[in-house]
Amino acid sequence: MDLKLQNKVAFITGGARGIGKAIGKEMAKEGAIVVLNDLNAVALKEAVNELVDMGYAATGICGDVADPDCVGRMFEEMKETFGRVDILINNVGINHDVLLMDLTYEQWRKEMAVNLDAMFLTSKAAVPLMEPERHPVILNGGSFACFMPALGYGSYAAAKAAVESFTKSLCGELASKGIRVAGYAPGVTNTEINRELFAHEGERMCRQIPLNRVAEPEEIARVVVFLASEAASYVAGCMVRIDGGKLCVQNADRFR
Ligand SMILES: NC(=O)c1ccc[n+]([C@@H]2O[C@H](COP(=O)([O-])OP(=O)(O)OC[C@H]3O[C@@H](n4cnc5c(N)ncnc54)[C@H](O)[C@@H]3O)[C@@H](O)[C@H]2O)c1
Hints:
It contains seven helices and seven strands, in the order βαβαβαβαβαβααβ. Helix 1 (18-29) packs across helix 7 (217-228). It is of the alpha/beta class.
């Protein structure tokens, strides 16, 4: 299937590692011009170099997507360099594994800022650079926590649930500008954010997933790339679950 992503300019937040990096790679394979954003300058340089060494069109813009001024500067740079944005992937996310009485106000605010505010800021900055005849797309990264929180991740789940609502609103509002908006909800995925958790609870987590394993970042990325393409031209306003069946039954391991 030709996904028709050649020369599409794709901006991917939090793209230096994990799911964002994998999305960048899969998008680049399809011929898109990939712009990876990240706070971590060293990791960002490595991720961009990896893509460039493979012969793909890629560049990086370092900066904090939760900082309004910084987002303004980054999209000014996008305008000067490319003159447009065709695909915005709001991938960035952070979590704190902390129960209510230990969660500080600063941690709560930070989760809201990075998981939710950032997609408000980037969407607002990207829309004026989107050209309806190029079928622009905004994809918002949620989580299976959008639908069911996990103990220890209350602030994360609250922010991710809001991502679903914001995605619906943006879809309705931006359709008249020719911009398609949708979301995707990864399940447990094999990335740095989970290293410590997997070390202690990996086995238990897999037991609760019908496919009995966590996802590799590429398995999330391939679906996201499809959603960004014209092949998914009628997918809008929903969160597409990519979670190995995580929320479909209560007792996935009953007959194993
Ligand atoms: N890994 C999972 O199990 C899982 C499950 C469901 C949803 N998700 C979501 O998928 C997304 C990616 O997850 P991941 O596991 O690849 O995460 P990750 O921690 O491996 O990578 C996140 C990247 O975002 C960057 N970043 C953090 N704050 C930033 C900021 N303010 N501005 C710019 N960059 C910033 C980090 O430097 C890092 O490179 C997140 O939104 C996460 O909530 C992940």
